[in-house]
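Q: Structure tokens for this one, please.
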Amino acid sequence: MLLSNKFFRKKQFSGNSHLDTQLKRCLSVFDVMFIALGNMIGAGIYVLTGQVVHSEAGPAIILSFLFSGFAALLSAFSYAELGSRFPRAGSAYTYSYVAMGEIWGFIVGWTVPLEYMIGLAAVARAWTAYLDNLVNKRISTFIIENIGHLSTTEGGFFASYPDILAFFVLLFVSIAVAVGTKLSANVNSSFVVLNIAVILFVVIYGLTFADFSLWSGVDENGRSKFMPFGLSGVLQGAASCFFAFIGFEVLATAGEEAKNPHRAIPIATFGSLTIISVLYILMSCSLTLMIPYNQVDPEAAFSAAFEAKGATVAKIIMSIGALAGMLNNLVTGAFALPRSVYAMADDGLIFGFFAKVNSKTKTPLNATIVFTLLTAILTLIFDLNALVEFLSIGTLLAYSMVSACVLLLRYQKTPIEGEENNYDKGGQLKKWVPFKSYISTFQPGRSIQLALFTLIIGYVIIALSIRIQNIDNFLGIILVSFGTILSSIALFFIIGHEQNELQATYKVPFVPFIPALSLLINTFMMIYLKFMTWIRFIVWLAIGLLIYFGYGIRNSKEGKKNVEIEIKTNK
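A: Here is the predicted structure, written as tokens:
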């Protein structure tokens, strides 16, 4: 087999094989929805909100959450369709493998475990920091006095002190998750109910201190009290707030353990996003109507606000909610991490040891143990501030791939049920498309691939031109115009193809416009990431590709299937 054919071989499901699994199908719609909520309610709402209000958007964080929620919704459309069609543990990895081929599936899959590891480590450290603040720094003081510093350099690679408490909290959470899927789901659901109750208390009690003059007029610097940092601040805040919504993708990793994934994944996706958007906006209103935006504590916004109002009991209740919320983040993250590893190992792309499912718990125990220990070590010794932004590139890459997968799959020809060797019109050119006779000579699906590639190139040109601030000069205008024309032609060309008639529980509406808009937003966000983030990503990707070329390409189950088919054909 040609090397290029190995790279782009696609994962195939026959009959109901997409439902076959070693894992236990025991999760209801509410279990799956609460897993997503548990991964979103936590550090995002208790830590991120204060930082964005104080330094980026002010009370206009409400608009930031609306914009970022809309961006998350665009990606959610694609996740809902693919999650209902291919309910496997790998989420974006599986979708990319099915639609784009093995090499792209591996690239996406390789970024996901690191994303979860860094995310878990960051939340674990935030949890202990919050508890440490609640007890007047007694925890950090005790560790430093008895063990000492790891680093005295502020902003360095290593943490100031070894976070032993975070290390053991991660181990405890992973044990709970490893015991069994249903038990961990029940623990998660209990935390979600507690968190929502605390949030509603904070919102209602906080609004009793509401001062609407904090939203109207101008401050002492002549800036709008509601939008002190202008529209650019709102957009910058939206980019930050976007990552408070990324937890919804964790529900796709539960697809292999849902009782009825075709129904559960779409309902849970939109249900969790709707609930979390309303809660974020209500919390932001409560905070910004209590105290002026420039008096908000970026690290402990709500507890400091209640303390400023003399509401000590409310501060304690809110602190308990914050700790429970972040602990819930750890539970859902510890649930998703080993399953993302298991999916790749089960396909033979990484070491088969991680594909072992424990006969008693029906969970990927080996992957849970190894990657929990790795994450706990990260948490123990590394300062994660320099690594947190790395989270975004993996997430945005996964979201972009999922949107691209919807476009590719919608324009593929599919077999007509009950009619052997007969296909629908999927991927065929419409009559009005120019140069139809020439384009029709391409291999099936190739023209859509080229159009999608061209669309993304156009987006990158536009985003780069604006990013390097060339929009105000002649060259910048030319580049933006060229990128706009290029992407418009590509989108117009995609519209010129027939969509297939494949039946699905849920399908993204207004294709290709919604996936294309999602790709545009994600491309802009990736272009605006720091240069060092891209360097770290390239290094991590290089390590992964060494594993793929040394092990995965030879042990791929899909590759072995193809070899067996070739042998049978030759006989």
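A few notes: The chain has two domains: 22-398, 411-529. Residues 411-529 form one domain.
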